[in-house]
Amino acid sequence: MANEKPRTAIVIGAGAGGIAISARLAKAGLKVTVLEKNDFTGGRCSIFRSKAGFRFDQGPSLLLLPNLFRETFADFGTTLEAEGVELLQCFPNYDIWFSDGAVFRSSTDTAAMKREIEKWEGPDGFQRYLNWLAEAHGHYEISLQHVLHRNFTNHAQLADPTFVAPTIALHPLESIWSRTTRYFWSDRLRRVFTFATMYMGMSPYDAPSTYSLLQYTELAEGIWYPKGGFQTILAAIERIGRRLGVQYRLNTPVAKVLTGGPDGKTATGVLLESGEKLEADLVIVNADLVYAYNNLFPQESENKSVGPTITPYANDLSKREASCSSISFYWSFSKKIPELGTHNIFLADEYKESFDAIFKRHTLPSDPSFYINVPSRVDPTAAPPDKDAVICLIPVGHLSATHPASSWPSLVASAKKAVLATVEKRTGLKNLESLIMEETINSPPEWQAKFNLDRGAILGLSHSFFNVLSFRPRTRAKGVRNAYFVGASTHPGTGVPIVLAGAKITAEQILGDKKMEVPWVPLREWKGDVQAKQGNEKRGGGRLDLVKRPLWTDDWNLFLWSVIGLLGVVVVFLAGPAAWGNGGFVGDW
Predict the structure, then answer these.
(1) Which residues are in the Amine oxidase domain (predicted)?
(2) What are phi and psi of 120, to 5 degrees?
């Protein structure tokens, strides 16, 4: 087997990562079987329908970083559009509601943003906004090239000058809150431009400032919604995989990853909970990574070959900082609520305290911030005529010793009461609860039970400095050959577009380990959208469209005038005695 190319692969879990990597491996020529514990695919990125005909996205409800999605489809020789995916732009991006009745409307419209920002911080504020946007653009471009299109298999890579030099500009050691205060001088706008760290399940007071790239992509590329629900994108990738021969088995929970080989340290297949054994040359795990190391891989008490490596590592992972969880309400409203746009953010008055409650005390804040999505506002197919589908997500702490599963029913009731009261007070709406026809709830215990999420943390492990890059659990399983990971808690991290990028990274690692050809443009050749399209004069109208950096850029001007200034000083000092008489210029001093 050591010298043979693998022929079969098993993927555990049909989440975004599992669906994407199964199609990639099938394209590379492997026979792939995906095993999913639930009766649906997509994992947290799935949809469900209520009895009354309302459609809800169970997890993600806004699409960011659209080029990463397009890259995935391009690698399969197709496009989103060709696969029947229609992206609808959400405009404006958000309505951000404050306790004093003010509403900040965020959008891709620069003129509108100018008015919004100058309303609170004057003309100088808009200039600072543009400076912030320029820095966030740098965070975005550097991250795409040096993080999202690169694997990290050892700590030595962090000392590589080709990595260190550009990533200093990511400001990874400064929090996004601290960095934002340089550009926005009112607490109102500081909150507007930092709340998005919740997409990573982190507090803005702890998240590296690198993550300003999230709000940059919203402002520069827009927020999008796939018509028919977010899961339609994964359904399209699933169809591509099926065309390539991928087989899906739903309602098929895995009990263990099997190991064997001469030293007992090679993955050989899986044992299903039903007792059935399936053999494979490769095992790729898209289940929650912490859960998998603690429950799917052999432990020390049952396997003396790999257990002594797995068990201590699994224990360490269980102690690592995790992301937040959520209480998510899915409401079927009997009428439209025009006061609410597609995306609405209600920010807590006690902003920092709300994050401390989530990340330090692992509970529901007394004054919670929350997000309300009305998918039927942008996509009418989400609800019956003249009605609205409404999703409310309240970030909360994950399961802990102080807040176990038994404590959450009362917290859910408190959260619902707080949300409805806040929405009514800030929007002027009345008697919202009477309009709710149906209600479905996901809270930390449900997230844990449905998707085997460790501690019910909806975004996996935290993205703090020592939980990213080579510090994050590796894509190649520890202590077990021929086993790999894809998903939120391995590199590069959480979020559907990031996980799709991770599927490409892990797939190429597998093909590289097995000396197999990569059947798409490989990571080492990725040069970014503009450079990849440019390359020569054949792009667009020929030479008119050739992108070429001019000599007289600001950097060159600065360098040139610095040299001229220095030469001027030297000339003055050398010519001083002749030009200035007795003692010259120096002597006069």
Answers:
(1) 17-289
(2) -105, -30
Report field, pTM of the whole predicted structure over 0.85: yes
For residue 164, what is the enclosing H or E element? helix 161-167
How far apart, in whole angstroms, are the C-alpha atoms of residue 349 and residue 69?
36
User: Residues 200, 206: contact at Cβ < 8 Å?
Assistant: no
Cα–Cα distance between 188 and 231 in angstroms, integer?
34
d(CA 284, CA 257): 10
pLDDT in tens, 538-554: 455 577 777 777 766 66
C-alpha distances in Å from residue 285, one per residue of 18, 20, 429: 8, 12, 46
What percentage of the chain's residues is helix, strand, coil (to nearest 5)?
Answer: 45, 15, 40
Whole-angstrom distance, CA of residue 538 vs CA of residue 497: 30
Distance CA 482, CA 461 (A): 23
**Which value, in Å, is the radius of gyration of the alpha carbons in the chain?**
27
Q: How far is CA 462 from CA 156, 176, 448, 570, in A?
A: 22, 15, 16, 55
From CA 485, how far away is CA 505, in angstroms rounded? Answer: 10
Model confidence pLDDT, tens digit, residues 52-109:
999 999 999 999 999 999 999 999 999 999 999 999 999 999 999 999 999 999 999 9
Q: Give me 561's structure tokens.
A: 């005038």
Q: What does the alpha-carbon distance between residue 341 and residue 437 come to, in Å, rounded to a whole number?
A: 20
